[in-house]
């Protein structure tokens, strides 16, 4: 299969959703529902593995959860009282079934299924060593490295082997795994990606976000802590902290863009956080205008916060067509450009002759902003002021959010005035980094040390070493071409 690589970057970046449940007769059906609520975290592929006491029943498919996991036939085949699931969003690497999770391995100590959200930063280094020692990789995902490290570990139990494996990896991971007699949830020591614990009656659930608990009527119990590994089996929940303590570095971009606004992550409502960011933005970069318009859907909560704070009416001046995926996820540049037009249309009636403030969550390449500003002008806006509810995205993410290489990031190439010209707005402003931290309830960036965030995409301050990147190791070289 020939695809145009949208990011000119061969490494595999994945932002995904994970779900796990133990001890329920309808484990696979509940997992399918949970994954449906986590669809925003990955629309490329999905998979479920269920265990019925004897067999690991696995189904993996390219495409949306609802298109592949809604029939009785499929769910019926996924028999078992325990299940784990994954939604995958990898914009590079092969879009082939062999890269879809959960991964499964027959270990000397039993069956093992694994689903991973995040990105490992020493994947290439580990992979090379494993291959030299005889490991035969089946996929090009970084997650498979963990499976091989577990398979070749000399420890006796799967749990100890998993700990041994994870002690060797660097990067971001929130994983769920399934063994013969348990499910496991684990977060990297910095807690970059989310993972929470829920309960449905006596049944424990693990999920990337609380919206996946809501959909099945489960209660939120707590977040899995950074560096915590939980084992859920017939005796209940056991918690371990097998890794050296590290500073908390939750991905602040989860709050800005990635997580669903109805989720509560790391103790904070995503919706409220976005409104607070919008309010900070209004305080920092006030401009006289007639209406505040969000770039839907991701800009909506911040625009509400902005409008409330500024005392300027909020209007839906752009209507989104909901039958198109997120712009970024389209595979080629051409389609991505086309995608923006497919997705948004000006609601002319409340724009003509007005001074408009447009609020979006972020500018990455600038594609969206250029189109939307032009759309406002074409609809008769008198002035167009762009306000962005995050600081300028100047650096790539290596921990699982798919930001392109630096030379594709608008803010890495231009200063704010140049970006304003490029976008065609009358004025452009981003929330400051301290404003962002204030919105998150901190006094400033520097006062939040221990309970801090990963904000590398805005500051270049990478909290976890970038071993592969520093060594100049790029892609997983695959000599296998395969059609999806
Ligand atoms: P741009 O068009 O500037 O390249 O991207 C900015 C737009 O893409 C914003 O409207 C934002 O909501 C969205 N966006 C920002 N980061 C991401 C991401 O990591 N993935 C996806 N799918 N969309 C993103
Ligand atoms: Mg958006």
TrEMBL record:
Gene3D superfamilies: 3.40.50.2020, Glutamine Phosphoribosylpyrophosphate, subunit 1, domain 1. NCBIfam families: purF. Pathway: Purine metabolism; IMP biosynthesis via de novo pathway; N(1)-(5-phospho-D-ribosyl)glycinamide from 5-phospho-alpha-D-ribose 1-diphosphate: step 1/2. Mg(2+) binds at residues 298, 360-361. Catalyzes the formation of phosphoribosylamine from phosphoribosylpyrophosphate (PRPP) and glutamine. CDD domains: GPATase_N (cd00715), PRTases_typeI (cd06223). It holds the Pfam family GATase_6. Binds 1 [4Fe-4S] cluster per subunit. It catalyses: 5-phospho-beta-D-ribosylamine + L-glutamate + diphosphate = 5-phospho-alpha-D-ribose 1-diphosphate + L-glutamine + H2O. One of its GO terms (molecular function) is amidophosphoribosyltransferase activity. Its EC number is 2.4.2.14. The lineage of its organism: Bacteria, Pseudomonadati, Pseudomonadota, Alphaproteobacteria, Rhodospirillales. PROSITE patterns: GATASE_TYPE_2. It is an enzyme of class 2 (transferase). In the C-terminal section; belongs to the purine/pyrimidine phosphoribosyltransferase family. This is Amidophosphoribosyltransferase. It comes from the Bacteria. Its cofactor is [4Fe-4S] cluster; Mg(2+). InterPro entries: GATase_2_dom, Ntn_hydrolases_N, PRTase-like, PRTase_dom, PurF, PurF_N. The active site is at 16 (nucleophile).
């Amino acid at each position: 299969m020939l695809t145009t690589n949208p990011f000119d970057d061969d490494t595999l970046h994945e932002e995904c959703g994970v779900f796990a449940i133990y001890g329920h007769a309808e484990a696979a059906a509940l997992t399918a529902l949970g994954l449906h609520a986590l669809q925003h975290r990955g629309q490329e592929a999905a998979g479920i593995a269920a265990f019925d006491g004897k067999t690991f029943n696995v189904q993996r498919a390219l495409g949306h959860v609802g298109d592949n996991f809604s029939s009785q036939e499929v769910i019926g085949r996924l028999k078992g009282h325990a299940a784990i699931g994954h939604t995958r969003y990898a914009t590079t690497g092969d879009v082939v079934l062999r890269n879809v999770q959960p991964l499964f391995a027959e270990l000397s100590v039993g069956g093992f299924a694994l689903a991973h959200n995040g990105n490992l930063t020493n994947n290439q280094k580990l992979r090379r060593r494993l291959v030299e020692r005889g490991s035969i990789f089946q996929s090009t995902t970084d997650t498979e490295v963990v499976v091989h490290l577990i398979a070749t570990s000399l420890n006796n139990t799967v749990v100890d082997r998993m700990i041994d494996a994870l002690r060797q990896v660097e990067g971001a991971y929130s994983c769920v795994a399934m063994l013969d007699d348990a499910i496991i949830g684990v977060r990297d020591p910095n807690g970059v990606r989310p993972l929470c614990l829920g309960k449905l009656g006596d049944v424990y659930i693990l999920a990337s976000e609380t919206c996946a608990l809501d959909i099945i009527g489960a209660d939120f119990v707590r977040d899995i802590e950074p560096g915590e590994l939980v084992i859920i089996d017939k005796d209940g929940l056991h918690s371990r902290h097998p890794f050296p303590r590290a500073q908390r570095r939750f991905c602040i971009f989860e709050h800005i863009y990635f997580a669903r606004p109805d989720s509560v992550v790391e103790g904070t409502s995503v919706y409220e956080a976005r409104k607070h960011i919008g309010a900070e933005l209004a305080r920092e970069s006030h401009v006289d205008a007639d209406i505040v318009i969000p770039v839907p859907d991701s800009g909506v909560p911040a625009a509400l916060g902005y409008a409330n704070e500024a005392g300027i009416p909020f209007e839906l001046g752009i209507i989104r067509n909901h039958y198109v995926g997120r712009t970024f996820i389209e595979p080629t540049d051409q389609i991505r450009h086309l995608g923006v037009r497919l997705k948004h249309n000006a609601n002319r009636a409340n724009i003509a002759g007005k001074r408009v403030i447009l609020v979006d969550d972020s500018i990455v390449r600038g594609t969206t902003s250029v189109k939307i500003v032009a759309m406002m002008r074409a609809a008769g806006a008198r002035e167009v002021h762009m306000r962005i509810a995050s600081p300028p995205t100047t650096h790539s993410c290596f921990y699982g959010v798919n930001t392109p290489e630096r030379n594709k990031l608008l803010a890495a190439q231009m200063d704010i005035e140049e970006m304003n010209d490029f976008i065609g707005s009358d004025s452009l402003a981003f929330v400051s980094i301290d404003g962002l931290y204030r919105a998150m309830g901190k006094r400033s960036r520097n006062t939040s040390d221990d309970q801090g965030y990963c904000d590398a995409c805005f500051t270049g301050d990478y909290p976890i070493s970038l071993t592969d990147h520093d060594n100049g190791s790029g892609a997983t070289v695959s000599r296998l071409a395969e059609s999806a």
